[in-house]
Design goal:
Layout (H helix, E strand, L loop, with lengths): L3 E4 L4 E4 L7 E6 L10 H19 L3 E6 L6 H10 L3 H18 L15 H13 L3 E4 L2 E4 L15 H7 L14 E6 L14 E3 L1 H13 L3 E7 L3 H16 L6 E7 L2 E3 L2 E2 L10 H8 L1 H9 L7 E3 L9 H26 L9 H20 L4 H21 L5 H18 L13 H18 L3 H13 L2 E6 L2 E6 L2
Helix pairs in contact: 1-9, 2-3, 4-6, 4-7, 6-7, 8-9, 9-10, 10-12, 10-13, 11-12, 11-13, 12-13, 14-15
The structure holds adenosine monophosphate and zinc ion.
Length: 483
């Protein structure tokens, strides 16, 4: 069973074959760091994090590069408004980006290059595009010459005439054709600038990804990803620039992947429209796991709607996602607890049959992930596993040690890919806090035995204040951390 990806270049599902066996070069367009990311921005970061984890699970070594756009019109405008430098603004929001994405369990890229650290590489690639006859200098600006590039429009599947109809020339732009786009912009007063062969100026937006992708991954890479709004013009321009610079006839990217939009009450969530729920707020109010669960509960190419009550600001979608996470976590903690209280290798439970049921589900999980990493289906199968575990726990007084090992391993394997169950409280058994919790639970049990209910209530309240909830069962007291 091999991985199939929907390639936007051909608009069809294709079997994934890497350039170098066993290795995947993966470039993902990162954020423009002029503000907090919203949960629409978080969608590509989370879904492509899962693809990366799946590739690693399948044994590939993945080199994952994701840039920070730290210079563009929006950055300059925002820095001026706040009275700080563009660099200070970038530092602040790169820090905030990592706070949010670390909380969301998104693995950090292997390389996270910033545009402003790559001006020499950007200048060099522009020089190559000019030398190859695909760009021209105009009064300190440099433009890509669309008419010299007949393949333009091959990614977004539009012909030049249609694209031309939608193009316009901004005031101050000195280009030959409205579709031509800036590779380099001449210095304007009050803007950061760098020396270049064409005078002082700064890079256009699209060129940074071509320069950084080829620097870290080479001229022909396996996967390039981003939100669907980047297909045109950003990715179309990247293809033109990279292939015009390399002039090798090789494609810039073999597989182009784009995620669908996150909608807020049926309208695209976007910073410019102002209809945003920041990732930070969503994490605080609903937990990072709920945000991740919600964004993975639809196929990455489909739009996904976040229902948010405009008056109360409560999101039914995230409440629902939080309940899903809770079911998953409860299954794992019930399993941990039963392993301590009900494991018995003499149990009559048919563990061989159970193992083959788990294996069948494992096959289905892999099938779903190999089918264009269908996380919605994969989460469905995770719930089938949970159902199987819960039923076994309910129907059997005792269970063999192997049952617990198989079940825990299955949950861990799936969660290493999806990241929707999160850290395991019971795995912290040996840390000091967990030992202290266990000690207090024992003290509470002793107090209850001695009918000292004042003390036992005190202990419950003390633990509650520390975010630990207790549940008394016939087998003893279970505890878990509140999310
Ligand atoms: P930006 O910081 O605006 O360049 O966006 C970072 C990433 O978020 C890009 O891959 C965008 O395509 C993506 N993105 C922005 N808004 C949305 C949305 N509402 N839904 C899904 N992806 C989005
Ligand atoms: Zn990009």
């Amino acid at each position: 069973m091999s991985l199939v990806l929907f390639n936007d270049l051909t608009r069809q599902k294709e079997t994934f074959t890497p350039i170098k066996p066993g290795h995947v070069s993966f470039y993902s367009c990162g954020p423009t760091v002029y503000g907090y990311i919203h949960i629409g921005n978080a969608r590509p970061f989370i879904v492509f994090d899962v693809l990366r984890r799946w590739l690693e699970h399948e044994g590939y070594t993945v080199t994952f590069v994701q840039n920070f756009t730290d210079i563009d019109d929006k950055m300059i405008h925002r820095a001026n408004k706040e009275g700080i430098t563009v660099k200070e603004l970038a530092e602040k929001f790169i820090g905030e980006y990592y706070k949010d994405t670390d909380a969301l369990g998104i693995h950090r890229p292997n390389v996270a290059p910033r545009a402003t650290d790559h001006v020499p590489e950007i200048i060099s690639i522009i020089e190559r595009i000019i030398a190859n006859g695909h760009a021209y200098v105009s009064d300190g600006d440099v433009y890509f010459d669309i008419r010299s590039w007949p393949k333009y429009g091959s990614l977004c599947k539009q012909n030049l005439e249609d694209l031309e109809a939608g193009a316009r020339v901004e005031p101050g732009e000195k280009k030959r054709d409205p579709l031509d786009f800036a590779l380099w912009k001449a210095e304007k007063p009050g803007e950061p600038s760098w020396d270049s062969p064409w005078g002082k100026g700064r890079p256009g937006w699209h060129i940074e990804c071509s320069a950084m992708s080829s620097k870290y991954l080479g001229e022909n890479i396996d996967i390039h990803s981003g939100g669907v709004d980047l297909t045109f013009p950003h990715h179309e321009n990247e293809v033109a620039q990279s292939e015009a610079a390399s002039n090798s006839g090789k494609p810039f990217v073999n597989y182009w992947l784009h995620n669908g939009f996150l909608l807020l009450n049926k309208t695209k969530m976007s910073r410019s429209l102002g209809n945003v729920l920041t990732a930070h707020e969503a994490i605080e109010r609903y937990t990072p796991l709920a945000v991740r669960f919600f964004l993975l509960s639809a196929h990455y190419r489909s739009p996904i709607n976040l229902a948010l009550d405009p008056d109360t600001h409560v999101s039914e979608s995230l409440v629902h996602a939080a309940a899903g996470v809770e079911r998953l976590r409860n299954c794992r903690s019930d399993l941990d607890f039963a392993a301590k209280t009900r494991a018995d290798d003499a149990s009559a439970f048919d563990v061989e049959k159970y193992q083959s049921e788990l294996e069948e589900l494992h096959g289905k999980f892999c099938e779903a992930m190999n089918d264009d990493f269908n996380t919605a289906a994969a989460i469905g199968i995770l719930f089938d596993v949970v159902y199987l575990i819960n039923t076994s726990l309910k129907e059997n007084e005792t269970l063999p040690g192997k049952f617990f090992k198989l079940s825990k391993d299955a949950l861990k394997e799936y969660d290493d890919i999806l990241g929707v169950i999160g850290p395991d409280d019971a795995e912290d058994e040996h840390d000091d806090e967990s030992a202290e919790i266990e000690r207090l639970i024992q003290e509470r049990a002793d107090a209850r035995k001695a009918k000292d209910f004042k003390r036992s209530d005190e202990i419950r309240d003390e633990l509650k204040a520390r975010g630990i909830v207790l549940e008394d069962t016939p087998q003893g007291t279970k505890w878990k951390r509140e999310l």
